[in-house]
Specification:
By secondary structure, the chain is of the alpha/beta class. 27% of the residues lie in helices and 26% in strands. The longest helix has 17 residues.
Length: 301
């Protein structure tokens, strides 16, 4: 059974200033999604499911999905604020989506096989897809053996602003023990720092392993997400900027012994386009990979 690639593409791009999912970065008009799907096909993934919003659906289908219809089976599901369990009401001041955990939950009826999760605007690299595809292809759809591709923190920062990262710890068997979501991370003269909820600075280490939201799950994860999202709403629905993150549920499953999460360290380079200024750096990185012979000049020719 070939695994499925689930791409989180519903982001609003507020810091970037536009729809990152359709931004052309490659020499023949390729987006970051092009490179992710190209690598996924090479690694052995069988189909792609996109998480998008109604507001971008028409443009996304025309510009992104139609490009891949002859290359790999594709479908989409919608993440919207009103897609919450019965018994809950959306606060009037709520504008942000409910987070990555809610986004993945939207695909519960669409995916019945082991699957990987990535962000649409992050470049993960060929080795990451190969490793995760190999892991997922060995999993029973009902198992609780999950996985995560791990990157070095120093290789995942933006030169142009703050980022959020899941800081990971694992045991000697490379089973994940904790993921701690840190926000407002930035390199400073004193090293890599993050701000806590009280705006106090704390230091992180360059070699820390971080989650770049490249996860491997089986369909059993959806049931946990459903329960966890209800718990999140009960506790946090009145907080207008609160989000239900994937690591929140992963942490809980690890702590109560429900799941094992294997960390897959990767040799791949990672980069993303959180800010508008990141775009040129992404273009340069892709150009360098083409010059190394990793990718062709025209990806789909």
């Amino acid at each position: 059974m070939k695994p499925t690639l689930l791409i989180l593409a519903a982001g609003m791009g507020s810091r970037y200033g536009g729809l990152k999912q359709t931004d052309k970065l490659g020499p023949s008009g390729e987006t970051i999604i092009d490179y992710s799907i190209y690598d996924a096909i090479q690694a052995g993934f069988g189909r792609v499911v996109f998480i998008i919003r109604e507001a971008i659906r028409e443009e996304f289908v025309e510009v992104v999905m139609n490009k891949f219809k002859d290359k790999i089976p594709c479908s989409y599901v919608l993440q919207e604020l009103n897609k919450i369990p019965e018994g809950f009401s959306i606060p009037d001041d709520r504008a942000k989506p409910w987070g990555t955990g809610h986004a993945v939950l939207m695909a519960a009826q669409e995916i019945k096989e082991p699957f990987a999760v990535i962000n649409a605007d992050d470049f993960y690299g060929r080795d990451s897809f190969v490793q995760l595809a190999a892991f997922l292809s060995k999993q029973n759809p009902e198992s609780h053996n999950y996985s995560m591709v791990g990157y070095r923190l120093k290789n995942t920062l933006s030169e142009f602003g703050y980022v959020s990262r899941g800081i990971c710890e694992s045991d000697k068997e490379m089973h994940l023990t904790t993921v701690t979501e840190r926000t407002q991370i930035k390199r400073t003269d004193n090293g890599i720092m993050f701000l806590d909820e009280n705006s106090q600075q704390h230091q992180l280490q360059e070699e820390d392993i971080v989650s770049m939201n490249f996860w491997g799950f089986t369909p059993s994860f959806f049931n946990h997400l459903e329960d966890g999202f209800k718990e999140f709403l009960t506790q946090s629905i009145q907080q207008p900027k609160s989000e239900y993150f994937i690591p929140t549920e992963v942490n809980k499953l690890i702590n109560n012994g429900t799941a094992n999460v294997t960390v897959l360290p990767t040799s791949s380079s990672w980069f993303g386009i959180t800010y508008k200024e990141d775009k040129q750096l992404a273009i340069d990185n892709i150009k360098a990979l083409i010059e190394e012979g990793i990718y062709p000049e025209d990806l789909w020719k």
